[in-house]
């Protein structure tokens, strides 16, 4: 605030009997809770100022300062201001003395006095005025963006209210993290440094308290990572005093990334000898099952096998490659319910000769980068398997045994007839391969940094050769077939190849517990299916999180960019927030949790379950939650929530299961924990806190999955409300790899 009398030695004018003191007193509230009280008065006599004495409201406290002079307390409620240099005033000159830092008592208004005394002892001005408690002036900072989309150019405008008057010199504005660009403004110069932009006025101007600033920043290029930013803004005067300071919130939320259109390929002609329609799930599961598919832990050994296809259909031939050196039996089991036995034998061949295959090789380069890909592609074929009309579409485990050791090789048999089913369950084979350590190197472990290319040309090391099928996915198959649902199956590879057909194959798709690794065609196909009315239930977490590229049309290998920015560049979100999982499915991965309790609520997800029922260990594997800085679908609701703890950091994490209805009418559920499938069969990974859930917990999760299916299927899929299906065979528990989890 300018003080007129302190600006120079004033010339004394002739006395004027018409001049009166005209004392006025005003207060301005500062953002820190103090008040600046300013006394104004006209000089009624010329002279040199010795001091000015004022009264302040009784009960005022605070450290009081002023400008161009010193302030002393004379007595309670009385202050004296003494100029720091000679000040001469003429009759009629206007005094303006601010006192900063006062904390006023309650009440008001107050009648206060003002008295200016000259060096001769003569009174230069004297009188009283009234002070009314000032209205607090808030900086009321606001920030807007003309184009609030991460990764795009935008004009940022910073608004703020001046809380202390003065000569405005500069405004300092915090930029959203990662902002770049050749920025400009108006009526001043703009410089950037350390994440801030500073605007300096070309011509300093006097600004009153309560004045509203608006400083535009043109040409700002926003980071591809958005969020909700709290940004600081401050204004300073020509003397360096703070005229305004505060912060405002700016939401830069990326909508879902546009995906390329996925062509709808025609279905292949049905091969001779293959049916145009397959038996119902109920009819298939009425056939005799067997528990002989189970490999006991005592038979874990060096025998291993893999198939030359991850999925096939009636009429195809698939080769199997085995390393043993002993004759083996090769038996194909269709996985299902089968009165609780879990599988039916479909095909077998005994006394098949084998060899000890060469050790897998690890190596390869691409674009100057080491791929560290472990491959057993050099293995010789052991046997060819023809898929006839006996191979009813479903998930299969091929059990290979030499009598001493045994292993599985998984295969999915598709229904390619073109008949549409109520439900399609996807198998996450790309994720199985990412964690596969057979022969030495997975994406996460081996040779210090892990692979940049993974191939299906080798057995799975986990799940007794089943990958993550037995630890995480068998439960969904067991449940769906025990309920007699109209269900069909395919794999991640099939989503990449046949994704455009998804609306023709099923009305609803279930993603399994850990479906993390997605190519662009996979993500585009899933997104397109939602826009075409296909319902999605992600009965897991961490879905569509990492970005892969199949190396060719055979889809036998895929690459992942771990070279640009380490693990960051392997994720879809590295492309920007628009590519996060939350804009696609409703929630986003946070961390790994080995098992914490879910407490049931009262919404539709828990219909038929008493509220406040504990489900110990259900928040397990990995958990998702709704990130506040990412796109939230209109109408998205959190239908279940809980609190877990990150496995390695100990950080507390929320878990949010979400649901929303897309504009197409498609319903999308995100389960946000790995545990659905394994709780359905009471067999979870052995390194979780609850590896064997109780029968009560199994029943609760069965009811939850029934409710999810009914909601997401829009009433077209109605699982019977019976008790949880009991498994009649014991399957060895498997560990779940957690090398990458924080």
N/C terminus separation: 54 Å
The main pleated sheet reads as: 7 strands, mixed
Q: Uncertain segments of ≥5 residues (pLDDT<50)?
A: 1-16
Number of strands: 40
Helix content: under 10%
Question: Could you tell me the strand content as a percent range?
Answer: 35-45%
Query: What is the molecular shape?
Result: elongated
Number of helices: 9
Q: Which structural class do the helices and strands define?
A: mainly beta
Rg (C-alpha, Å): 37 Å
Mean residue pLDDT:
94
Strand arrangement, largest sheet?
Answer: 30-28-31-33-40-39-38
Q: Could you characterize what this model shows?
A:
The protein is mainly beta and 742 residues long. It has nine helices and 40 strands. The strands form ten sheets. The chain has a seven-stranded mixed sheet. Strand 1 and strand 2 form a beta hairpin. Helix 4 crosses helix 6. The chain is elongated and about 125 Å long. The protein starts with 23 loop residues before the first strand and ends in a 30-residue tail after the last helix.
